[in-house]
Amino acid sequence: MEILREPAKWQDAGVYCLQAVVVTESARSRLLDAIEGARLVPLGQGLSLMPVTETRFGTEPLAECSEHGAVAYVEAEYFGGAGTQSAQVWEGGETVLGPLHVDEDEPVPADGSPISQALRRLGVLKGDHFDEFDAVGLGRHRHTDDWLSA
Q: Are residues 143 and 8 in contact, defined by beta-carbon separation less than 8 angstroms?
């Protein structure tokens, strides 16, 4: 699988679009070394987010980085409340969750959305928040590129 972010076709206020790698503190420096031009944004709970902009790479670097700590690829696209989510998590060089995907016409699984499941696998605690997605503030920005200018 190759990970490539295509430029957003719409920049409307009702659109939410995220394509990112979420990495634990222990794998952070390996990710920066493995992916040219990688830029990380702190999320909290010991995690950082690397927005996937126009970078092209396969999943091999993510699996390799996971030798040092858990790494997840997450993506979501929503418009007007309907949308899709996908996630996959690597740890110890192997896929340990996913790939998971929920289409807009599918119900969210009882154990949470793909992104919340991935974040939980990376150690996120939801606490008083609605879910793990909310707990790390993934709703702070509506578009992937906005994470880089924050």
A: yes
Residue 119, phi then psi, degrees to nearest 5:
-65, -40
Q: Which of 101, 98, 35 is nearest to 62 (CA)?
A: 35
Contact between residue 122 and residue 89 where contact means Cβ atoms under 8 Å apart: yes
pLDDT at site 54: 72
Give residue 128's pLDDT. Answer: 95
Q: For residue 42, which of 30, 28, 54 has the smallest C-alpha distance? A: 28
If you search the block for the tokens 């858990």, which residue do you land on? 70
Overall residue count recorded for the chain in this entry: 150
Give the H or E element holding residue 119: helix 114-121
Query: How does pLDDT run across 52-96, given as a tens digit for each residue?
Result: 987 678 889 999 999 999 999 999 999 887 889 999 999 999 999
* Cβ contact 75:85 at 8 Å: yes
pLDDT tens digits, one per residue of 42-52: 998 999 999 99
Cis peptide before 99 (omega within 30 of 0): yes
Q: Is 39 helix (H, G, I), strand (E, B) or coil?
A: coil
